[in-house]
Design a protein that fits this description.
two-stranded antiparallel ribbon, alpha/beta, single chain
């Protein structure tokens, strides 16, 4: 069983990493090509391209300027310990012990606009480049064109290596569009998380993001390899609802008093 997550906009490069174990990203050459392109943009152009404020645009222009294809502890940190958004609050990878980090390294991948596909312990440098950014490049009009089949091919290779035929999609719609489910050599399962509000169950973005991280955490803590065991996921009060689910979409709901 493999799991894919989205990255986060918020980053934490101030806290010390909880492990010295690391790997290096597989697609650094591609990342460098994107950085070379981004270095041609002014702060105003970056702000317009990414729909971000002037201070954020200036910050990211500075990040592109200092980005290096050489990784070290002075400029990089493991991806799963660097992302700091709602998903990663649920995942809470800083609490993992060595064996749990090993499971995560083998079973979780993080989709990235800049890095393509990251293992949890891959070193990364601070950046902002969302997968949906319409960054025209030599390969096409946007990042989906740039990355092409890269993520899907890498996931197929990993699935073959692990003799796994199930991919659990815990990524956002924006990021999972970088994967081509029909080209994945196996089954794709997408958990959906809903909360009771105003008389009905609905997806509430903040809670759904955190729940994706919680499910990935549940898989890590229980060392799950059989996807069916994810149906027992019950963190933060979520419960699998078989009558609202099908083979591809698994619905989890909670009703907090």
């Amino acid at each position: 069983m493999l799991i894919v997550l989205s990255p986060a906009k918020s980053l934490d490069f101030e806290s010390r990493p909880t492990t010295k174990k690391f790997t290096l990203p597989d697609f650094t050459t591609d990342s460098a090509e994107l950085i070379d392109l981004l270095r041609q943009f002014s702060p105003a152009q970056v702000g317009s391209l990414m729909h971000i404020s002037d201070p954020l645009a200036q910050l990211n222009v500075a990040r592109y300027a200092t980005w290096s294809s050489q990784y070290s502890w002075t400029n990089a940190k493991q991806a799963v310990l660097s992302f700091n958004g709602d998903v990663y609050g649920g995942l809470d990878a800083t609490s993992f012990n060595a064996r749990q980090l090993d499971y995560a390294q083998n079973h979780i991948r993080i989709l990235s606009g800049l890095y393509g596909l990251l293992r949890p312990l891959d070193l990364m440098q601070p950046y902002r480049l969302e997968m949906g950014t319409r960054l025209s490049n030599a390969r096409g009009k946007d990042l989906y064109s740039f990355w092409g089949n890269t993520q899907t091919d890498a996931l197929n290779a990993l699935a073959a290596e692990q003799k796994s035929n199930v991919l659990v999609n815990l990524a956002s719609e924006e990021y999972f569009k970088a994967v081509k489910p029909t080209s994945f050599n196996g089954k794709v399962v997408t958990p959906i998380f809903e909360d009771w509000k105003n008389g009905e169950y609905k997806i509430i973005s903040f809670y759904a993001k955190r729940a994706r991280g919680l499910m990935a955490r549940y898989a890590v803590l229980n060392k799950i390899k059989n996807v069916q065991k994810l149906k027992a996921f019950n963190l933060d009060g979520y419960v699998f609802v078989p009558d609202e689910s099908d083979a591809q979409s698994w619905r989890f709901q909670r009703r907090v008093a």
